[in-house]
Specification:
The protein has about 140 residues and is mainly α. About 55% of the residues lie in helices and about 5% in strands.
Length: about 140
């Protein structure tokens, strides 16, 4: 993704100030890269923040970041908008992300127990979707 974004920026004549990436979940607000991004934007060092997908920047509150960044003269440019989802799909995705995040905090991000919990939740959602068609 990083190399693609470099090419994307070069094709548009953007000067790349920094390349930031975090391994942590988009739910976490204390990510080192995110904090550095805030510094760049609030110091007026960036007029565009380019991301592949919205959820790479944050899982929730994207519109708040857009508003904040624009107040410092920066915009967020999303390269791939992704497939449009209905409200039910978005809710399920958000719930999956929350379960994965909390399970990671409880058991560690690479633990077997975390994986079991996330898989169990996925199975529950699939079961509800199969049986809950008239609800």
């Amino acid at each position: 993704q990083v190399e693609y974004l470099r090419q994307y920026c070069a094709a548009r004549g953007y000067s790349v100030v920094d390349v930031l990436s975090d391994v942590a979940s988009g739910l976490r607000t204390d990510r080192r890269g995110l904090m550095k991004l805030f510094d760049h934007v609030t110091k007026g060092e960036a007029d565009a923040v380019v991301v592949t997908y919205r959820d790479r920047l944050t899982r929730f509150g994207f519109e708040y970041l857009e508003r904040l960044f624009s107040s410092f003269g920066a915009r967020i440019e999303v390269v791939f908008g992704g497939e449009p989802k209905d409200s039910r799909e978005e809710l399920v995705d958000d719930m999956m992300e929350l379960i994965a995040s909390f399970a990671g905090r409880l058991y560690g991000t690479r633990s077997h127990r975390r994986k079991e919990l996330v898989e169990g939740f996925k199975e529950l959602v699939e079961e509800v979707e199969r049986g809950g068609e008239g609800d």
